[in-house]
Amino acid sequence: MPFRLKLTLIVFGLLALSVAVLPLILPIPELDTVPARQLAGDEGAFVTVDGLEVFYEEAGSGGTPLLLLHGFGASTFSWREVLAPLGAERRTVAFDRPAFGLTERPAVPPGATGLENPYTPEAQVALTVGLLDALGLERAVLVGNSSGGTLALQVALAHPERVAGLVLVGAAVYEGGGAPAWVRPLLHTPQMNRLGPLIMRQFGEGPGLEFLRRSYADPERVTEEVIAGYRRPLRADGWDVALWELTKASRTPDLAPRLGEVRVPTLVVSGAADAIVPPEQSQRLAQEIPGAELALLEGCGHLPQEECPEAFVAAVTAWLEGGSQ
C-alpha cells in the first residue's frame, strides 16, 4: 500500500475514532439548578395531569374560558401582559408546556414513544386535554403562539369537541417543527445523547438571546427584566436534558393538508413585522382554515402578546365579542 494512502487512512481512522469516542468521555459541567417548585413563588399553582406536575396561572372567571399555549423556549411569562386583561371577562389560564417553564421535567424511559414520552406531540396533545379535565373545563378557546399554535391546531383536529375556538398567533404550521427525517436517527446515538443537553445550554446564552430579540419588531424592548423572565426557568433541575428530549421527539407537523378539516371559529393573529413566522404564512393560514379571520398588528413582531399587548387584547376581545365565542 502506498505510504500516502496508508497515512491518509490512518488519519481518517483517528478522526472517526475521535468523533465516536470523545463525546462519550468529554466532561460535562454540572449546572447549579434547583427544583422547579422553588422558583414558583406565589404566582401560580401546580396541578397533576397524567402523573405530571403542571404549572399554571389564571385570572378571571365565567364565560367560555381561554387556554393560553406559549411557544418554544417560552413559559407563562410570555402571557404576563395579557393574562389579567383577557381575564376581565372570562376565565383565562396559561400553563407551562412540558420541557418549559416550571412544569415537571421527567426522565424519559429507554425506548419510550408516543404517549409514554411526555415530550412527543401526541403526549402534548393528551396533556392539554388532560389539563382541561383537571381544571374542570369542558371546552375552551385555545390561544397558541408559534409552536403553541401548532399544538392548538393538533388538539382541535384530534378533539374538536373540547375546543370552542382557536386564536393562532404567529402559528408555526408550514415550516419548522423538528429536525429533518434523515437527521433524527443521529439524535438518538449515545454520542448525541451525551452532547445534546450541552448543546441545549446554548439556548440560555447568546443564540437564545438573539432569537428572543429577533422575535420583537423593536429589539430595544427586550429589556433586562424580559431576559431575566425568560432565563428563570433555566434554573430548574433538568431543563437542559428535557429540552434535548423535546428536540429528539419533535417532528415537522403535517398540518397543512388538514386545515380544511378545522370546524371551530378561528382568529389568525400576526405581527406585521414578524421575522420568525412571516405574515404571509399567517395570511395563507387564514385563507386555508374555513371561515377564519385575520388580524394583522402593525409594529409587532412574533410575540405581539408581549410587545403590543393592548393591540393584541383589543383584537382578541373584538373577535370574541363579535360572536365567535
Automatic annotation (TrEMBL):
Stretches assigned to the AB hydrolase-1 domain: 65-307
Superkingdom in the source lineage: Bacteria
InterPro entries per UniProt: AB_hydrolase_1 (IPR000073), AB_hydrolase_fold (IPR029058), Epox_hydrolase-like (IPR000639)
Native source organism of the sequence: Truepera radiovictrix (strain DSM 17093 / CIP 108686 / LMG 22925 / RQ-24)
GO MF, any single term: hydrolase activity
Keywords linked to the UniProt accession: Hydrolase
Name of this chain's protein: Alpha/beta hydrolase fold protein
Pfam family, one: Abhydrolase_1
